[in-house]
Structures are given as C-alpha cells and as structure tokens.
Amino acid sequence: MRQPVIHLDVLFAGSSIFENWRQADKLIDSATMRNAAIGGTETSEWRPMLGPLIAKHRPRVCCLYIGSNDVGRGRAIDRILANTVRLLEIVKGMSPATKLLYFSIIRSADKAARYADLDRIEQTVRQRDASDALVDFIDNYPVFFASPHDYQV
To answer: How many helices (H) and strands (E) does the chain have?
Structure first.
C-alpha cells in the first residue's frame, strides 16, 4: 500500500549543521517544514534515506547540507562526488518541481588540507546549478568568514 503524500513547504536534510538548527521552523510563518537532518551522517547514508523523504513529502524546497562528514573522515573525493551527484538526482528525479538548495560545506580549519576537494564538490554542484533553474548553490563561506563590517543590521 502506498504511503500518502504529506506535502511540505521545506525539507531540511543532511548532517549536524542542519540537525542542530533549532529555529529553522521560525524562518517563514505558516510554512510547513521538517528537519530530517541527522548529525554525523555521510553522503552514502543519505542515498537510501533521501528518496523516501522526497516521495513522502514532495517538498516545494529541499535544503541539503551534505558531505562535511565525508570530507572530515577522509573519504575519497570521487566517492563524495558520486554520492552528491546521486543525491541531487534523487531529489530532481522524484520531484522535478522541488527547488533544491545545496548549502556548501563549511571551510573549517580541520578541513584545510582538503580545500581543493571542497572546490571540486562546489564546482560540481555549481555546474548543476547553472543547468537547472530549480537548483541553487548556497555559499556558506561569507557567513562564517566575511568581515563583520560587511553586514548591516
């Protein structure tokens, strides 16, 4: 028996950066949201989990923060790239009308030796962004490393 679709406005998926974002539901009044992020997860773990979430919720927007734990644990870049591309394909294949927001991996000091790998991941997602109006790359770098004078309150 097929599960009923429970439509969401926004679905968050990925690792602890999203899991620990306790105020996500306060972003948009009256929006239906689900934070399905699980701290410590890698891209390979999301491959079997993301499809059922997309099928169940058919979100208008899917926000992904993935790959950080893969990089931190020394996983091969080719594996990370393959999993990342597959996850983007899962979302777009199961729900073509869903706006997909990929949030870049935070360039923390513990990942400094792999910044070139982060560049490759970003380039791969940006290429998808350029070819699909419903995929956007969100660069987290300015949020963490811009000068405080760059922001206006």
So the answer is: 6, 5
pLDDT band at 143 (very low <50, low <70, confident <90, very high): confident
Please state whether the predicted TM-score (pTM) of the whole model is above 0.90: no
Least Cα distance to 43 among 8, 6, 4, 15 occurs for 15
Query: What length is written for the chain?
Result: 153
Calculate the dihedral angle through the C-alpha atoms of 114, 118, 120, 121, rounding to the nearest 10 degrees. 140
Dist. CA 29–CA 26, nearest whole Å: 7
Q: Quick check: 9 and 25 in contact, CB under 8 A?
A: no
Letter string b/e over residues 87-115, b meaning 16 or more CB atoms within 10 A of that residue's CB: bbebbbebbeebbbbbbbbebeeeeeebe
Residue at token pair 């410590």: 40
State the pairing for strand pair 61-65/10-14: parallel
Average pLDDT, the chain: 88
d(C-alpha 49, C-alpha 124), whole Å: 22
Residues 6+ apart with CB under 8 A from 22: none
Q: What is the CA radius of gyration of the chain?
A: 15
